[in-house]
Amino acid sequence: MTALLAPDAPVLDEDPFSDENIANPYPLFERMRELGPAVFIAPHGYYAVGRHEEAGIVASDYARFSVEGGVGMSDIRKPGAWRARSPISEIDPPEHTRVRAALQKILSPLVVKAWKEQFARHAEEVADQVVAKGSVDGVADIAEAYVLHVFPSVLGVDVPPERIKLTGELNFNQLGPNNVRMARALERAAPIMDWYQQVLQREQMLPGGFGEKIYQAEDAGDFDKGTAPFHVRSFFRAGVDTTIAGIGSTLKLLSEHPDQLARVKANPALLKGAFEEALRMESPAQVMFRTTTGEVELGGVRLRADTKVGYHMGAANRDPRQWQDPDRFDVTRQTAGVHRAFGVGAHVCIGQMISRLEAECILGAVLRRVERIEPAGPARWRPVNTLRTLDALPLTLVRAEGAAVP
Ligand code: HEM
């Protein structure tokens, strides 16, 4: 093959996964975007893409940017890989199209809509409890208390919340580099790994959950034999921590912007916009990887063959080429379908409707009961390689006049 004429991607000798950059990634994201449409991250040997347009290309152009090497930094086809393949997110079309269609049937809009009543009921219970308390942690008492109950109940698995958190943290650390953060997550999760394999098996699926339907679809020949437990694992991996992160960030941003909170309270239809805007500003999944299928050109620079490319949605979602005043939280901004927080293309998040339903139920239930939400101390981000999520979010919920006391 003749070499492409475009210049090599510029080199950035910085570690996006250093403590400093994980705690506050935005200054680095700006340097990344300004340096070029793709930059070679020297410490890890991958190309980082931080601009909105090119992030969309990397996410969706599977002929040039394949998922077969895995959506994490390690190439799962090569010796020394530290992750195992997902049978949905780590296969390219046309194989992916067949698997995705089968899962889409299981999680059709009709199915998800039918969960609304049960989601709303639990949201009312959690909201009553937290508003009665007044001083709460927005992560533990609201986002986690809610998601760790409703999501496992529709998946149809009975899992202690603490264990879900351990496996989630392991997953989002493993998607990044093999660093100290990942080693610690592995150590913490080691005592429950046998249990984790077991809980994904057919006999553990509760009747009526979509986990059970995944096994039935495998029986019907919709997926390859033996892949059902890995599908259940993919939903575990993808569905819980991301939604907790998104709800946590929405609460944080609303508490820090009383004017935006007042707008949402005055017009509850804006709640959807508030959640999407929080996903844009603090994207839960921060980066997903592809592998170049040959030497390719992206935005006028040349990328080497068989090399990892990370699309940093956290950076793309604040790219001033796409967003006016990108660091401003604006609940009226039109972001759905444009921000990259759910990805784009064949692998776009299959659970986005579920996370939206969860967010609207719990945030709506809390907002209806409060006059204001005030920060009650500094929020703390949890250091995870590829997930932007809060560890602590102290809040004071000021009850609205006339709101019923449970
Ligand atoms: C705010 C919450 C969520 C965020 C930010 C999020 C983010 C994402 C992103 C960025 C992708 C694309 C990955 C790529 O390009 O390689 C994705 C895919 C996926 N998500 Fe989500 N997700 C969320 C909620 C959920 C939920 C609730 C579920 C469970 C039903 C879920 C299940 C999946 C699965 C199975 C895929 C792989 C789809 C495929 O490869 O075809 N996600 N998600």
User: What share of the residues does DSSP label as strand, in percent?
Assistant: 5-15%
How can the largest sheet be summarized? 6 strands, mixed
N-to-C SSE series?
EHHEEHEHHHEHHHHHHHHHEEEEHHEEEE
**Could you list the spans in which at least 5 consecutive residues all have pLDDT below 50?**
none
Describe this protein's structure.
The chain contains 17 helices and 13 strands. With about 400 residues, it is of the alpha+beta class. It has one domain (about 10-400): Cytochrome P450 (Cytochrome p450, Orthogonal Bundle), CATH 1.10.630.10. The strands form 4 sheets. A 6-stranded mixed β-sheet has the order 1-2-3-9-6-4, sandwiched between helices. The longest helix has 18 residues, at about 115-135. It is globular and about 70 Å long. The mean pLDDT is about 95. The structure holds protoporphyrin IX containing FE. The site of protoporphyrin IX containing FE (HEM) has 25 residues, from helix 12, helix 13 and helix 17.
Can you give keywords for this protein?
single chain, binds protoporphyrin IX containing FE, three-stranded antiparallel beta sheet, alpha+beta, Cytochrome p450
Reconstruct the topology from this structure.
Elements: E1 11-12, H1 19-23, H2 26-35, E2 39-41, E3 46-49, H3 52-60, E4 65-66, H4 95-106, H5 109-114, H6 116-133, E5 135-137, H7 138-155, H8 161-174, H9 180-189, H10 193-199, H11 210-219, H12 228-239, H13 241-256, H14 258-266, H15 271-281, E6 288-292, E7 296-298, E8 301-303, E9 308-311, H16 313-316, H17 352-369, E10 370-375, E11 380-382, E12 389-392, E13 394-399
The chain binds protoporphyrin IX containing FE.
